[in-house]
């Protein structure tokens, strides 16, 4: 499989060099030049790894990382930054990053670290759940329909994963909010309806069943 990496770097010469190097090594790469663009792409697509610069325009790396963690606590992130202060690095590690690479860096060393991270996280590449024509790859955050990859947002994937891992269980909206967003989510429970509607639009109406007055479930087809 081709891992999908998001490169968030405002220095376009460095961004281009990293992207070119990764593409040559077989990776699928998407690039963002500022924090706002990074968040927008993260909300729309699924990435196996995010390379995140700390000194970014519009939203800095710390703000971007905080927003990523609110949405997906397990999203793999590797920091690339000219900030070499050890306290900044330690603080970044407390936010569950995979590694911290200080600029300037060797492209070969960066590639080695990326390969090590991806191999460690996604070493069980065959772990998947099949329901009808839909196959969900747990470690890779990927879903296919009739063998064709379908792009889900991180939240859509996590909602689907929760139900695929518990086939037949009826989830209330509140339960799904707790599983996916956490106990401290203060938003409207109807946000689940919006995400389920989007999942059905992408994967078909039969994937998730509505249990009137209760919530949703996935049945073994």
Automatic annotation (TrEMBL):
Residues 126-220 form the OmpR/PhoB-type domain. One of its GO terms (molecular function) is transcription cis-regulatory region binding. InterPro entries: CheY-like_superfamily, OmpR/PhoB-type_DNA-bd, Sig_transdc_resp-reg_receiver, WalR-like, WH-like_DNA-bd_sf. It comes from the Bacteria. Keywords: Activator, DNA-binding, Phosphoprotein, Transcription, Transcription regulation, Two-component regulatory system. GO terms for cellular component: cytosol; protein-DNA complex. Residues 126-220 bind DNA. It holds the Pfam family Trans_reg_C. The modification 4-aspartylphosphate is found at residue 53. SUPFAM superfamilies: CheY-like. GO terms for biological process: regulation of DNA-templated transcription. Residues 4-118 form the Response regulatory domain. PANTHER family: DNA-BINDING DUAL MASTER TRANSCRIPTIONAL REGULATOR RPAA, REGULATOR OF RPOS. This is Two-component system, OmpR family, response regulator VanR. It comes from Isobaculum melis.
């Amino acid at each position: 499989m081709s891992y999908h990496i998001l490169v968030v770097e405002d220095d376009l010469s460095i961004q281009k060099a990293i992207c070119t190097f990764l593409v040559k090594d077989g990776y699928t790469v998407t690039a963002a030049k500022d924090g706002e663009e990074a968040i927008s792409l993260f909300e729309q697509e699924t990435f196996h790894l995010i390379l995140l610069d700390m000194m970014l325009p519009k939203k800095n790396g710390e703000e971007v990382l905080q927003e990523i963690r609110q949405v997906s606590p397990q999203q793999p992130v590797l920091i690339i930054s000219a900030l070499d202060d050890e306290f900044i690095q330690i603080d970044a590690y407390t936010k569950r990053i995979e590694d911290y690479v200080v600029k300037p860096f060797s492209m070969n060393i960066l590639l080695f670290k990326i390969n090590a991270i991806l191999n460690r996280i996604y070493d069980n590449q065959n772990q998947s759940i099949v329901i009808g024509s839909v196959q969900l790859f747990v470690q890779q955050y990927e879903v296919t329909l009739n063998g064709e990859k379908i792009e889900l947002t991180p939240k859509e994937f996590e909602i689907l994963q929760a139900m695929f891992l518990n086939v037949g269980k009826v989830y209330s909206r509140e339960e799904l909010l707790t599983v996916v967003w956490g106990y401290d989510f203060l938003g409207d429970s109807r946000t689940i309806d919006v995400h389920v509607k989007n999942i059905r639009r992408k994967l078909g109406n039969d994937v998730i069943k509505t249990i009137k007055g209760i919530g949703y479930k996935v049945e073994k087809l």
